[in-house]
Amino acid sequence: MEANGWKWLMGIGLASCWLVGCANLESGVPAVSRQMIAVSGGDTGDRLEVGRRVLTTRCGACHRVYAPGAYRSAEWVGIVDEMAARSKLRASERENLLLYLVAVERVQKTGTGR
Amino acid sequence: MIKRIASLLMAVPVLFGGFLWLGVESANAGQRKFAYNYEVLTAPLGSIEFENWVTWRRGNGKDQGNFRHEVEFGVTDRLQLAVYMVDWQWTDAPGEKKVKYEHTGVEVVYRLSNPITDVVGSAVYGEVKVGDGVMAWEGKLLLQKNLGRLTLTYNATVEAVWEGSTLGQLNERSGELAQTVGISYEIDAHVNLGLEFLQEIDLPNWEAAGRSIIFGGPNISLRKGRYFATITGLFRLSDQADEPAMQVRGIFGVDF
Fold this sequence. Notes:
The complex is a heterodimer of chains A (114) and B (256). Chain A has 114 residues and is mainly alpha-helical. Chain A contains five helices and no strands. In chain A, 67% of the residues lie in helices and 0% in strands. The relative contact order of chain A is 0.16. By secondary structure, chain B is mainly beta. Chain B has a single domain (2-245), classed as Porin. Chain B has one helix spanning 2-22; strands at 48-59, 62-74, 79-93, 96-113, 121-131, 134-147, 150-163, 172-188, 191-204, 212-224, 227-236, 246-255.
């Protein structure tokens, strides 16, 4: 292969590593915390995890993931209802997604942190 | 051969109808932002997507179109299976005008990590294609990071091809290394704009690396409801005059 080709190969590889390395920033999708479990009624850890996973795999497959704090709880209900119908989320997925979004929004609003 | 392609294509509407029926209970698959880069997020469990690919290459007095009709299934939330029902090729060059069946194949993608919550999203990809006197295997490592409206992807690819007069006599072997980089910005929930880069390095007979060919160009992705389309135009950035000067790939998909 031409020397120039290897330079391109290494250049693209290094640029990609740099981009991916720089990308290690806050995702805006907080991990499930004790506060979230508390504000969502307790014993909801597994359901909150499922809700977070639905947000980052199902919603994020088509469009950017909106930070849970971007909308108020009442607004999330309408948004999730509309999107759940469009993406054919199962009832349990819709409920767990909403549980997670509302829990994060409540925790952030009350300032209890993670 | 044209008859064979025609008969295979006639199966498409039948399968299409079948998916519409199945679609009552299935979910949306992921909608592609790129045409040359694969993304890490796989189709969710139960999803079915029908995709049509068109790749048009032009240069050196030759036009060539490659077509693919593919069905994608979400086997689990991490594992995705796709079937290439038929890949076929159209060529228009001085003294050469033909349409030929290329291959049929299977593709598997397994997601290892999440591009939104993990440091880097990653997946592994495997593909096997079989055609008239040709068999090919392709492996990829897929990396991706989503940063709000921005999606960054990188794919590293190794391809092995065995060719011969029949499937029982695959005497010639060759390979290719390739890597792609993509960056896409979400304008709104329905439109993404971006750039894609592709580098290909031939490995004739797996003995020595051949030339490195670099392409780059703009990308647009549109989606509305169950439908999406993504188109990328790539222009040759390296100086091999005997290679296509440009290539355009469009992928049109519908979720069931």
